[in-house]
C-alpha cells in the first residue's frame, strides 16, 4: 500500500462516473445488494445502540455475525457489507468529533435513502476483484456489467473502489474511484496582469474585473421553467393515477437533466478560467445563505459554491491558487480607483455609481470584482512574505 513516492510526485484521486447497463439478473442482484446494505446498516446500528446501553462501550458488530440469522446476506458481495460497516464506523467518528456538524447516524429507510453500495478493489498478485474492460465493469458476483465510459481511465491509474447507485428515475451509475500518481506541478506566482477577480452575480453567474461575464446559458433557465410547469401540473393531479406516475417520472428525468446541464456548465467554465489565468480571486460568500435570502430556488446559487471548488482543484493541478477573500470584505461599496469605502451598500438596482472622492464612474459588479482581485493578491503576497521570513 505505502508505495514509495518521490517528493516531486503527488497523489490525486479521480472519479469516473459511468452509466451502467446491467442485465435483468445483474439489476436484480444490485437491488438485492441495496436492500442487504440497508438491512445490515440498520442491524449494526441497532445492536451498537443496545450494546452501548448495556455495557457503556462503543462497539459495532461485523457483518459476518448476521449471516447465520439472515442467509440472504450471503447472496450479495460480502465487500459491500464490509463497506457498510466501515461507513457506519466513519459516521460515528465524525459524529463524536463534531456532533454539531454531523448528526447521530440514522436508520436507513427505503423511501428516503439513496439506493447504493460500495465495494473496494482487492488486489492479489495479478488478480483484482474490480476492473474495467473495454465496455464493461467487472465486479464480484455480478460479473461484467456493460458500461459506458465518458473517457478512458489511464493505464497507470489504480482502481480503488466503486460505488453503484440507482437514480430515482431508474438509471444505474458506477462511480469509480482511481488513485492517480502525478508529477507535482511547478508553483505559479501570479501577477496583477495574470490574475482575475470574480464577483458572484445573481443574473450573470459571475462578473470578472475585466467586465467579462459568464451568463448562465438560457437553456438552463428554460429547463428550470419547464420543471416549474410540470410541478404545477403535478399539484393539480390525483396522486396514484397512471397519468400522475408518468408525470412524476418526467419530472425526475428533467430534474436529472438540469443537474447534468448545470454540472457541465460549471466544469466547462471553471476549466476555461483555470487555464486562462494564473490565479483567481473570489469572495468566500456563504452560497447557501444567499440562496435562502434570494429565495430563487436552486437555480445557480448552489452552483457557485461548486464552481469555487472546481476552480480550486483545477488551479491546484497547475500549481496555481484560488485566493479567497473574507466574505465580509466590502467589495461592492469600495471604490477600486481610490480605495474610499462608502458607508452604505450600493443598491443592486444601480449598474454604475460615482465615487464622491475621486469622481470615478464605477460599474457596480466589475468594480467589486476588481476589489476582490486586489484584496486577494494583497493577501497572497503578505502570506508569502510571512512564509518566507518564517
Ligand atoms: Zn474613488
On the 0-100 scale, what is the average pLDDT? Answer: 89
Separation, N- and C-terminal Cα atoms = 35 Å
Structural class: alpha+beta
List bound small molecules: zinc ion
**Most strands sheet:** 7 strands, antiparallel
In total, how many domains does the architecture comprise?
2
Coarse shape = globular
Helices and strands, in order, run as: EHHEEEEEEEEEEHHEHHEEEH
Q: How many H/I helices?
A: 7
Kindly estimate the percentage of residues that lie in beta strands according to DSSP: 15-25%
Summary?
By secondary structure, the chain is an alpha+beta fold.
Walk me through the structure.
The protein has 2 domains: 9-183, no CATH class; 192-216 and 270-389, no CATH class. Helix content is 40%, strand content 22%. It is built from 7 helices and 15 strands. It binds zinc ion (ZN). Zinc ion binds at residues 335, 337-338, 340, 355, 357-358, 360.
Set out the fold topology:
Elements: E1 9-21, H1 24-55, H2 78-97, E2 115-120, E3 123-124, E4 127-128, E5 131-133, E6 136-139, E7 143-148, E8 158-166, E9 172-183, E10 195-201, E11 205-208, H3 218-236, H4 242-276, E12 279-283, H5 287-294, H6 301-316, E13 321-325, E14 352-354, E15 361-363, H7 364-389
Helix pairs in contact: 1-2, 3-4, 4-6, 5-6
Bound molecules: zinc ion.
